[in-house]
Design goal:
Bound molecules: zinc ion
Strand order of the largest sheet of chain A: 1-4-5-9-8-7-6
Largest sheet of chain A: 7 strands, mixed
Oligomer: heterodimer
CATH architecture of the largest domain in chain A: 2-Layer Sandwich
CATH superfamily of the largest domain in chain B: Bira Bifunctional Protein, Domain 2
Number of domains of chain A: 2
Distance between the termini of chain A: 88 Å
Structural class of chain A: alpha+beta
Mean pLDDT of chain B: 92
Shape of chain B: elongated
Number of domains of chain B: 6
Strand content of chain B: 25-35%
Number of strands of chain B: 39
Amino acid sequence: MSVLNELEKIKEEGQNEISDASSLEGLESARVSFLGKKGKVTTILKSLGDLSSEERPAIGKKANEVRQFMENIINKRKKELENEVLKRKLEEEVIDITLPGKRSPAGKRHLITQIIDEITDVFIGLGYKVAEGPEVETEYYNFDALNTPVDHPARSLMDTLYTQKDGVLLRTHTSPVQVRVMKETLPPVYIIAPGKAYRKDVPDPSHSPMFHQVEGLAVDKNITFGDLKGTLEAFAKQIFGADREVRLRPHFFPFTEPSVEVDVSCIMCNGKGCRVCGGVGWLEILGAGMVDPNVLNEVGYDPEEVSGFAFGMGVERIAMLKYGVNDIRLFYENDLRFLEQF
Amino acid sequence: MRVSLNWLKDYVDFNMSVEELVERLNLSGTAVESVRYLGKGLENIVVGQIRKIEPHPNADKLVVCQVDAGVEEDITIVCGAKNMKKGDKVPVALVDTVLPNGIKIKKAKLRGVESWGMMCSEIELNLGEDTSGLMILDSNLKVGEKLGKALNLEDVVLELEITPNRPDCMGMIGVAREVAAITGGELKKPAIEIEEANELANDFAGVEIMDADLCPRYVARIIKDVKIGPSPQWFQKRLKAVGLRPINNIVDITNYVMWETSQPLHAFDYEKLKDGKIIVRRAGNDETILTLDDMERQLNDSMLVIADSSGPVALAGVMGGASSEVSESTTTILLESAHFKPTNIMRTSRGLGLISESSLRFERGTDPNGVVFAANRAAQLMAEFADGKVLKGLIDVYPKIINPRTMKLRVNRVNKILGTDLPAGEVDKILESLEIEASKAEQDNQLNVLIPTFRPDLEREIDLVEEIGRIYGYNRIQSTLPESSGKQGGLSLSQKIEKRIKNSLISSGFWETINYSFVTPNFYDKIRLNKEHPLATYISLKNPLSEDQSVLRTTLIPGLLDVVKRNVNRNIYNVQVFEMGRVFRPVSEKELPDELLMVGGAATGSWSEGQWFGKEQPIDFFSIKGAIESLLDSLGIEDWFLQRALHPTFHPGKCAELFINSDVAGILGEVHPKVNTAYEFPNKVVVFEFFVDVLVSHTKSITRFSEIPRYPGISLDVSLIVDEKVSNEQIIKVVRTTGGKLLKEVRLFDLYTGKNIPTGKKSLAYSLTYRAADRTLTDEEVMRVQERVIAGLEKNLGAEIRVS
Ligand SMILES: [Zn+2]
């Protein structure tokens, strides 16, 4: 058999073996057996020197062709096999994506804090600062300075928690902050005062002896009742939704005149009437009014020069309406299963 | 205040649906609490007549009646009431009728006897409050007729919430005035025509006011020859509709006129007043009176009484006395229409726990100039319904005349406060609609206003502004936002830092809680503080809701432990919570306590319970320390350190104080095993509590950028064995001082005691990273420093270096 024939045979043999190789290892051993140091093609190439000068060019050319050819198909087969290996590996690596995720522990703000932050953000956007004041207050700031008559029932031991010290009480609303701020600063004043307040209410689903209020106050030249209305509308739409309607009902508070109670159209029924709103289609959310001239005088402002409005809202009530919480006491039990919900 | 709309129509015409009227009242400040439709649901109730009453064969408390209800045959009805007799006419609900309370009448077997309907009481038909028995109807009614029609029942009763500043609206005329103002209707007050007898009232009786401060005015009329009896049906119906119980014509008239005018009246049996003399005076401390409710009341000299020459006959403004009560034999009435000082009536009424329709009105303030109208109105009705002879003249003692107030109203001021543009004419019109007289003043755009005495709430110009606003309609006022005068909103720096503190703790796995500021007075006991501990000095409440909530907290820790406890009791064992809130520390020389904002936390269990991907991480001292490190990191606080501390609440070996610079920022540690036992915690609990102001004052609000290293660092490990007493901090200190400038980081990555380590020793392994800012370090350079570090550890701490 001539060498050329032998090469042709080796080529055919190699082609079969390479394409039959089913693994990278098999492919490698096929490569070694043809192109390795002792491989069939290599052996022929090595023996070229032994050939006559007439035979050498043709056989050399053919042998190199065969080597080239085999290298090519080996590389091609190698890629195929590598892809197969990868494919198999990827298949093996399929995971159960329904297993629970690996969470790092994280808590949340209390719902009351969330609501206060939300309200605060609205008023910061409207140009207000956040003011604070003591929770243990004097009767003067809590009642007197706010134009509350001496015999007003709110002052009684039935309604207000007093400390052992005469004239010192737990503030019954955040309104004394108004007075403190006005006494310390000159108008214009634009503040809100979120914080705790206390009343002598026996705890039940809708009463808590401690609760949170957000108080608001704007005093400036030319503040009008229209400004109060516009401000509260902006607030209600941001907190309760853009399609809320707001209505004002005249009311009576000692420290504002005129005074109003403010309703928003019911968030559950959109004003049609449901159980949440007691069928009236409106939910009372806050009390407000124009700052009484007596209060302005008390803090040394001139009611002829400046006017203002004030409002106050119960944070728990807003949280309960917005999130459907049905018992105010849940806010202070701090059961994790409650806290986790919001 | 209950208002019957049928009755209200006597005083004002309004032509709108009930719903619209309610809406307008609500929006003008007269809150409508409820609307009751009388006669509603009575469409199928008929007038029946009892033909026969027989005992029930099987039940003593029931009877079996045969009732003619206008259908072909008499029907059998089993009944439990006692107040009826044969021949009575009663309301009957036949089978399938639905009562106003929603109950559907069905055929029923009661103790073996079939009953084909029900005879009804007032309350079952929503016609009154009487629950004592069946409603016995007028014998003239036609059997089988629909009850609503027979009784002419259709009426609507509004329950109004009258704010304390509006005493005038405690009467129908006051409410009618409001309705007239908001609907544009006309107010019609009842016309008074009295045919007076020739005898003079003044010859019959005398009035003497001893305390004009408490009783500025007392008016009396004498009505002779009255015939006591029931008042007319229509009159009684009105009283019942508003919840008043008809008694007799005289008492009914005083109640009716009070409801009409808001002026309480009292009718005395003149014959029972000794010497026909009325003396208005303070009670003596030794006096008592038997009031109409049959209670003996102890009086004192703060209370005002109406007396005759023998003693008190009425508790002024609150309740009449039994001794001078109008009875069936009464023939002559002394009618009282007086004005009393509101605060005094309130004090007497509250003091005795005796609240009446009369006291409710007097304590809000009645109209001193409305007493004559009310007296005349009642006298007129007594003549009409009781055939009384009204004697000539009023006895009117008015030592302290109270005149209507005058004031100026600037129309510009109205518009400036309301944000409106109302002309003077419109302002005037609104005031007139409320019977407030206004006339143009000399000054431009000003009105002279005369405030009627029935409106004691209108004291200042601003009060009139409110009247104009609410009658004009707040919802008609244009909404605006305040014109900016350079206001700038935002949180203060410390408020922002407070938020950062919360956010850091939340991202470390803590849930925010809010706890009551008041705690039990033995809170300090539970956390093992003795009475002398500064935190055991607290503010006590004078009138706490309960002993458990009677003092103000001086630390957040007990509240947080209670939260852990509450959750653990509910089988939630992994609890990580924090609170930011105030504590209250009394300061002896100051009126108010110091209110310190604290942030505290408590954690127990593990961060994550055993999971499919790994083991749980039980919570210990270092869990909290890690959270605190993250917190300090997020605030940019670097110069902090922990110092071992002893505190009764904490485990003595697992407690530290946090210092920032030289300030004590707070404390952290594992709670003492005894505290743990006291709370019955199943696992160890770690807590911390810091002063927010210390954290805030050391917070770096601006962090300067520092160059990111350009050249790679080299990390080398060192393992060493040292005495157990040697602390991590000591080792780090030696490493840092010997490592010099090139040493950038030291990180402990292994800690081991036990097998292969001699007793009393521990093995630690650190990774040291060296780096220079300006070049790549060579191995030789780094090795030189590392050898210095090793030598330092050996020399200073007697460390045995383990080569790995
Ligand atoms: Zn609704």
